[in-house]
Task: inverse folding
């Protein structure tokens, strides 16, 4: 199951069963909002869907999104298989990775401010 279900510059929809978990979804949404590029987030816990709107001038394509994700949030990239085959037992590992990803926010915001 893929996580990105649609992408157009400025808008991305993520869908995964782990987004039904309030703790994981809440932590990710907080991380997205703190990034400095997200302009809005809508979550549907029943479907496990998160719609994110963001500044397309900073991430104009899916390739740039993937590269920035890998650079700034490698902790989540390392959990690829736990995320793909998510079970509730993976929750603590995923939340820990999200917490570590928060450490990259200052550097991410610096890069974003250089684009302004």
Result:
């Amino acid at each position: 199951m893929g996580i990105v279900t649609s992408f157009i510059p400025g808008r991305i929809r993520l869908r995964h069963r782990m987004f039904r978990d309030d703790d994981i979804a809440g932590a990710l949404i907080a991380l997205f909002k703190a990034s400095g590029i997200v302009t809005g987030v809508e979550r549907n816990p029943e479907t496990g869907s998160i719609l994110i709107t963001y500044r397309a001038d900073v991430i104009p394509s899916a390739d740039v999104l993937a590269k920035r994700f890998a650079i700034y949030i490698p902790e989540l990239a390392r959990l690829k298989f736990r995320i793909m085959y998510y079970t509730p037992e993976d929750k603590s590992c995923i939340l820990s990775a999200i917490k570590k990803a928060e450490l990259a926010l200052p550097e991410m915001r610096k890069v974003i401010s250089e684009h302004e």
About this structure: Residues 58 and 112 are 7 Å apart (CA to CA).
